[in-house]
Amino acid sequence: MKRGLQLLNVAAMVVLMLFLGAIVANGFASRQPWSLVCYKCKACNNSCVLGIDPQGFVDAELAGNSQVYIYTTNVRLPLAQAAALDPAMLITVEDRHVTARAALDELHIAPQQEITTYRVQARHAAQFCLRCGACEKECVLGLPLLRIIEKLRNSSGPSLHLEDRDVQ
Ligand code: SF4
Ligand code: SF4
After folding, report:
1. pLDDT value at position 88?
2. How many CB atoms lie within 10 A of CB 78?
3. φ/ψ of residue 121, rounded to 5
């Protein structure tokens, strides 16, 4: 029994080390190894007028996945445009958070109605981003957040032409 528990312990340690190793490898593979030192203090969070959680960009970078959903709570755009961008995007309708698709199909909100985003893919948040640098200035570690944002913008294909977006 004791030996079985020891083996389980060793196996759990190996899995944990592989997991941590993959995160470190991703940080280096993305050429942004500094992203490993972000300790999620959220000091950057309150600086964004678009309600973007800039630490989410770091998470996306570490995961090597630009489709990670991150908080973006203050971008306004027509519902049809939100649904075309990503039907699974979460938006705020009154005090609820629903997908853009559900807002159209179930709540029957008019496609031209302006909605407010809640959680969007990191690559889309990077397109919304004003690149004002306020989050970068607030980062207690001085991490180059704008560099990640630029990379995510470039990874999301052609510009989304979001000139019409608005800030509440
Ligand atoms: S650079 Fe982008 S994410 Fe950072 S505070 Fe400005 S708008 Fe928000
Ligand atoms: S302020 Fe810097 S260290 Fe803190 S969560 Fe934001 S990016 Fe990470």
Report:
1. 97
2. 16
3. -65, 145
In the predicted structure, residue 71 carries a pLDDT above the cut 60 = yes
Domain ranges of the chain: 1-30, 38-167
Distance CA 125, CA 54 (A): 9
Q: Is 149 in the pocket of ligand 2 (CB under 6 A)?
A: no
pLDDT tens for each residue of 26-61: 666 666 666 678 888 989 988 999 999 999 999 998
Q: Which residue has the higher pLDDT, 141 or 51?
A: 51
* 10 residue type, one letter: V
* pTM of the model as a whole: 0.78
CB of 58 sitting under 6 A from ligand 1: no
Alpha helices in the chain (DSSP H): 2-29, 55-63, 79-85, 100-105, 122-128, 134-138, 145-155
Give residue 130 CA to ligand 1 midpoint distance, Å.
Answer: 6
Q: Measured in angstroms, how far is the CA atom of residue 145 from the centroid of ligand 2?
A: 9
Q: Report the nearest atom of ligand 2 relative to the CA of 140.
A: 1
From residue 115, give the alpha-carbon distance in Å to each of 14, 61, 87. 46, 28, 13
